[in-house]
């Protein structure tokens, strides 16, 4: 066995041990357990089921969602789990740091943990863009850098632009998608003849099962921190249902033989939930959520079918699992919908007489959107350059998309 295969023995275990020791020390000196008041909406008895839904969605759902490559199944699920458990600990410490700096109020422990899990979704989405190209050391470094920058972005939105906490947190899809695309653009492109980056019916089936798992639990994701939980659940479910129906319809219409394509359905059924993340708790009429779900599915399906062929080669976008069209573009649509729906609601309440408040509302929402996406792109490019330094042992392009480089894999699995 070449020595290159053993090189991670001297880096990955010690990096993980170092980080875990650091997390333990920071938690020992800086983490204070809070006891919720009687009747608190975030008490463990009432909040734990929703938290478990989100936890299952992020670990199980996204773990299988990323299994799109025929020879990268172990790494897709295994690395996803490793990054989540490290990322959640980092996020909790960031939450406590913001409390220590008095940027946000002290909150009940389980609510802080839920926010940490939701924030870690940005890392999972970004991992989909660099799937099969980054080694474990690079993925761990990317996780820490991305979470810190995401919290800084959220802090800017909350303190400078006065964006509500729920809205600032739901920028996680937008940030994760474009941060990951920016990082992936700094990795060398795989050679045209490399066939390890294709999928098989088995890998597509596992990926679709993960998509269905994420689909089922997405209403809990959108409502876990919302004030109007019932409206958030109903609106998210209606949007997801319409986006799933539209995904099947558009898949048959855009294929040459009229057959459904698993890749089309896989990328579009979640689009409605992503778009509704911003406004799930504020929409009063279900038909608005259904229209947004339809538009989101159209953006994801047509974007994957049309733009991917002409836009990705021109901009040299490398998107292994299609996070741009599954999360990025629907998140952009959701941000635009937030501005439109907010202006309409404010205009109706003021009878369109207070133009200054409308202008301020547009400025705040567009400012938060532009700040988030520009921060994600700029810091993603810088992070991509950092990840390719020699110290982090970037793998050769010939070793892309291969479990055998990191895992003990049987010959039967390799041949499959």
From TrEMBL:
Gene3D superfamilies: Ammonium transporter AmtB like domains. Its main location: membrane. The keyword 4Fe-4S does not apply. Residues 47-390 form the Ammonium transporter AmtB-like domain. GO terms for biological process: ammonium homeostasis. The chain crosses the membrane at residues 12-31, 51-69, 81-101, 139-161, 167-184, 205-226, 232-253, 287-311, 323-344, 364-389. It is found in: Membrane. GO terms for molecular function: ammonium channel activity. It is a multi-pass membrane protein. Keywords: Membrane, Transmembrane, Transmembrane helix. Belongs to the ammonium transporter (TC 2.A.49) family. Rh subfamily. This is RHL protein.
């Amino acid at each position: 066995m070449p020595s290159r295969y053993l090189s991670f023995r001297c880096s990955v275990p010690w990096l993980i041990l170092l980080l875990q020791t650091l997390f333990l020390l920071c938690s020992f000196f800086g983490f204070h357990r809070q006891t919720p008041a009687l009747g608190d909406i975030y008490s463990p008895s009432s909040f734990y089921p929703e938290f478990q839904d989100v936890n299952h969605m992020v670990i199980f759902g996204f773990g299988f969602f990323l299994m799109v490559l025929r020879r990268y199944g172990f790494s897709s699920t295994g690395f996803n789990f490793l990054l989540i458990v490290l990322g959640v600990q980092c996020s909790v410490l960031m939450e406590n740091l913001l409390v220590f700096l008095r940027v946000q109020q002290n909150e009940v422990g389980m609510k802080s943990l839920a926010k940490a899990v939701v924030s870690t979704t940005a890392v999972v989405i970004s991992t989909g863009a660099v799937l099969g190209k980054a080694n474990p050391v690079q993925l761990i470094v990317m996780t820490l850098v991305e979470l810190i920058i995401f919290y800084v972005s959220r802090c800017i939105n909350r303190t400078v632009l006065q964006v509500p906490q729920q809205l600032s947190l739901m920028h996680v899809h937008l940030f994760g998608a474009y941060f990951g695309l920016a990082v992936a653009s700094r990795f060398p492109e795989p050679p045209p003849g490399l066939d390890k980056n294709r999928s098989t019916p088995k890998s597509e089936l596992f990926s679709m099962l993960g998509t269905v798992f994420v689909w089922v639990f997405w209403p809990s994701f959108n409502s876990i921190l919302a004030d109007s939980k019932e409206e958030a659940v109903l609106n998210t479910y209606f949007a997801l249902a319409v986006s799933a129906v539209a995904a099947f319809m558009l898949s048959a219409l855009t294929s040459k033989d009229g057959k459904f394509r698993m890749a089309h359905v896989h990328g579009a059924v979640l689009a409605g939930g992503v778009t509704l993340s911003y406004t799930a708790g504020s929409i009063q009429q279900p038909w608005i959520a259904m229209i947004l779900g339809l538009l989101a599915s159209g953006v994801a399906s047509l974007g994957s079918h049309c733009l991917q062929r002409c836009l990705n080669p021109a901009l040299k976008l490398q998107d292994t699992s299609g996070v741009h069209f599954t999360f990025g573009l629907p998140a952009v649509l959701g941000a635009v919908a937030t501005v439109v729906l907010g202006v309409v609601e404010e205009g109706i309440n003021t009878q369109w007489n207070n133009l200054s408040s409308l202008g301020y509302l547009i400025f705040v929402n567009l400012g938060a959107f532009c700040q988030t996406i520009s921060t994600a792109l700029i810091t993603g490019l810088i992070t991509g350059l950092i990840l390719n330094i020699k110290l982090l042992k970037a793998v050769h392009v010939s070793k892309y998309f291969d479990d055998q480089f990191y895992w003990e894999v049987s010959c039967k699995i390799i041949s499959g």
